[in-house]
TrEMBL record:
Subunit structure: The glycine cleavage system is composed of four proteins: P, T, L and H.
Protein name: Glycine cleavage system H protein
Organism: Streptomyces sodiiphilus
UniProt-listed HAMAP family: GcvH
InterPro entries assigned: 2-oxoA_DH_lipoyl-BS (IPR003016), Biotin_lipoyl (IPR000089), GCV_H (IPR002930), GCV_H/Fam206 (IPR033753), GCV_H_sub (IPR017453), Single_hybrid_motif (IPR011053)
Similarity comment: Belongs to the GcvH family.
Length: 125
């Protein structure tokens, strides 16, 4: 699965889709979902929580391991994807669409994020 060109990526394997209204949608990449294996539990930040770029804000538990979820940007959580909480397998089956994790009102810059080509080079895919 290729990395969508319109998204930006963190070195912690999250993707970010920024909308014109200042809100951004965050999920994990297909590379991360494949590395994790079957995701069985998702712990997300709560709406109203403040997250900081590069800091842990939740967890993803798979049949192999538990991994921290990092926010690629700083801001306030506005929404979480309850469908993923109810059905964590969406992270594996649809990481860039139905498996999104949360929405955040972005504060500050997104200077440390990678383009799709940079992320592909980073992961060696």
């Amino acid at each position: 699965m290729s990395n969508p060109e319109q998204l930006r990526y963190s070195k912690e394997h999250e993707w970010l889709a920024t909308a014109d209204d200042g809100l951004a949608t965050v999920g994990i990449t297909a590379h991360a979902a494949n590395a994790l294996g079957d995701v069985v539990f998702v712990q997300l930040p709560e709406p109203g929580d403040t997250v900081s770029a590069g800091e842990p804000c939740g967890e993803l538990e798979s049949t192999k391991s538990v991994s921290d979820l990092y926010s690629p940007v700083s801001g306030e959580i506005t929404e979480v994807n309850q469908n993923v909480v109810d059905d964590p397998a969406l992270v594996n089956s649809s990481p860039f669409e139905a498996g999104w994790l949360f929405k955040v009102r972005v504060e500050g810059e997104q200077e440390n994020l990678l383009t799709a080509d940079e992320y592909t080079a980073f992961t060696g895919e």
